[in-house]
Design brief:
The protein is an alpha/beta fold. The protein folds into 3 domains: 2-78, no CATH class; 86-207, no CATH class; 210-285, Arc Repressor Mutant, subunit A. Helix content is 50%, strand content 11%. It has 13 helices and 7 strands. A 5-stranded mixed beta sheet has the order 4-5-3-6-7. Helix 8 (152-172) crosses helix 9 (185-208) and helix 9 crosses helix 13. The termini are far apart.
Amino acid sequence: CPNGRDHLNITVWIAFDRLDEAFAGYADTELPALRALLRTYLDLLEFNKIKIKLFVRRDLFSRITAGGFVNLTHIHARKLEISWREPDLLNLLSRRIRENNAFCKVFGLEELNDRDIFDALFPPQVDFGTRKPGTWVWMMRRIRDGNDVKSPRNLIDLIQLSQDAQLKREDIEERPIGSRPIFEPGALRNGLADLSVRRVTDTLFAEAGTAVQAIEKFRGGKAEHNLASICDLLGLTPGEAKIQIRALTVIGFLEEIKDNFKVPSLYREGMKITQGKALGVAAVDSDDDE
């Protein structure tokens, strides 16, 4: 060692991120490997100069620790949950927009707060009607999964895909520079459709493992089910269906609402699932906004 020292006073930090994508396509390997990583994390706690940070999604952590995990209390004692509230997401979007100084100057956004920036760029509603939500609420309801997780990646991807759709529209029919709002409702609807297809492919199927076959049976159907309709759909007994439903709710494909189960809007377009109820043998259309 330099200067004749027998050690260096250095602390090493090792961060593991995107663990939900580390074993995509290797479902049989994923959980044993991640459980081993957690055990390694615990083993290294005795070394005060080696620090490990693991970034693990909540649903993945639940799957890793399902069925018990030795010394789980030590992990819980050091665990910090990062959650994105709606004001945090709005601020994230606004800060991304403010990074483009030229754009903000042209549209007069320089002195506006987060909400005013949003209102200047987006229409008041995507779907018009007295019972329909405002655009921000519409977005929040459609980027969430069945566990009510609103991922910042989903919001940013929705805006970027909507931007692509708006630019394609501008190529066909130009608007005057400075037209408000920047995004038209149709562009946001197209952006959501593209986001849904993307999330089904790169997130839902990548994380579902052996549940992919069950998910595929929902394709082309209705969004809301009860236990009876899921038994019919999957060809399972009520006991078997409950086990499968539990797996689908953990990964966020289904959301439990009282005695029923609903596929969130995030995955519907990508699965060609339409709004409405398939309860038992009856299918009921619904126009209620999510």
